[in-house]
Amino acid sequence: MSLQIDAVILAGGMARRMGGNDKGLVELNAQPMIKHAIDRIKPQVKEILINANRNQTSYAEFGYPVISDEDTGYLGPLAGMITAMGNTQADYLLVVPCDCPLLPTDLVSRMLEKIESQGAELAVASDGKREQPVVLLLKPGLRDSMKAFLDAGERKIDFWYAKHHCVVADFADQPNAFVNVNTPEQKQQLAEAIAK
Ligand SMILES: Nc1nc2c(ncn2[C@@H]2O[C@H](COP(=O)(O)OP(=O)(O)OP(=O)(O)O)[C@@H](O)[C@H]2O)c(=O)[nH]1
Ligand SMILES: [Mg+2]
């Protein structure tokens, strides 16, 4: 029996560094940023969920369910993750942000291999230098733990990982795969780099 893996693309933040423009919908090389993420992730998972807290109608046009944070207080990425964990029947949930257009095409397979070989509960990706705190593969059953963490007023994602058997999946061979676009300047730089 093969494992079912679903994904959530987090697009629920306020995008302050992007001037408040909804980052997933901001265009990079004539495509909304989230579409780049969808194209990278789609071949790797069964279902995709889009997590957004505004412009839900625009996000729905990509053809996937749009889920909004259960807690509307912009509590950070964990709020999107916990909502997605309650909306999937999958064995594993892949979590990615909407602002990483060059995600690895072997993201799931390498993270899954790492989890299963180490008997871990979740994996976080690394570009070889830094962990990517919102690129994760986790078991949706961790929802209760995340709920208790948020209910206790905690928000820092790495403190939550520390409570679990978390392994790092290393993508040092693809150092550009996690290029993260947070500002108009970063978007411009990436657009130029892709065009080269
Ligand atoms: N669901 C949800 N996702 C969030 C929230 N805050 C951030 N995120 C997502 O987490 C990921 C990483 O966050 P950032 O890159 O800092 O995005 P951001 O918070 O929208 O941007 P800044 O306001 O500029 O920090 C992005 O995919 C965001 O959409 C939130 O309150 N709820
Ligand atoms: Mg970011």
From TrEMBL:
GO molecular function, one term: molybdenum cofactor guanylyltransferase activity
A GO term from the CC aspect: cytoplasm
Pfam families (alphabetical): NTP_transf_3
Catalytic activity: Mo-molybdopterin + GTP + H(+) = Mo-molybdopterin guanine dinucleotide + diphosphate
UniProt: Mg(2+) binding residues: D99
Entry's localization field: Cytoplasm
An individual GO BP term: bis(molybdopterin guanine dinucleotide)molybdenum biosynthetic process
Cofactor(s) needed by this chain: Mg(2+)
EC number(s) given by UniProt: 2.7.7.77
Domain MobA-like NTP transferase: 7-157
Coiled coil residues, start to end: none
InterPro entries linked to this entry: MobA-like_NTP_Trfase, Molybde_CF_guanTrfase, Nucleotide-diphossugar_trans
Entry similarity comment: Belongs to the MobA family.
Quaternary data: Monomer.
Function recorded in the entry: Transfers a GMP moiety from GTP to Mo-molybdopterin (Mo-MPT) cofactor (Moco or molybdenum cofactor) to form Mo-molybdopterin guanine dinucleotide (Mo-MGD) cofactor.
Domain notes: The N-terminal domain determines nucleotide recognition and specific binding, while the C-terminal domain determines the specific binding to the target protein.
HAMAP family (UniProt xref): MobA
Name of this protein: Molybdenum cofactor guanylyltransferase
Organism listed in the record: Shewanella psychrophila
Lineage, uppermost ranks: Bacteria, Pseudomonadati, Pseudomonadota, Gammaproteobacteria, Alteromonadales
